[in-house]
Amino acid sequence: MQLLSSISLTSSGRRRQRRAISGSAWWVHLFGAIALVAGLFLPLTTLGQAMALPVDSPVAQRLQTADDTVPAAPVQVAAIGDFQTAQGCAAFDPYCQTTQLVNNDGIWTGVFAVSPVAYS
What is the pTM of this model? Predict the structure, then answer.
């Protein structure tokens, strides 16, 4: 394998040597450039998407078995915490009637009188 070379003069009078690559090196570079360009567009194809998310992967199985229904709106919501002891209930009791919230068009609100101590 032999590299071809040529010598040319630049505008400043300096000698500049240019080397041409061999035929096989040219093909290797061309193949590499095509592979890079194809790799840019591969995620946009169905083959690229299939390679990114194989059918036997746990994520794909979870996506295929996912239930797309919206859960029903809650009927009752309570504010829970150890502040409930000041309200006369057990701490973290979701059924305490004094800490139940009121539904105002999908926004649950409540006002509670609590003493200024440290609660978690």
Answer: 0.40
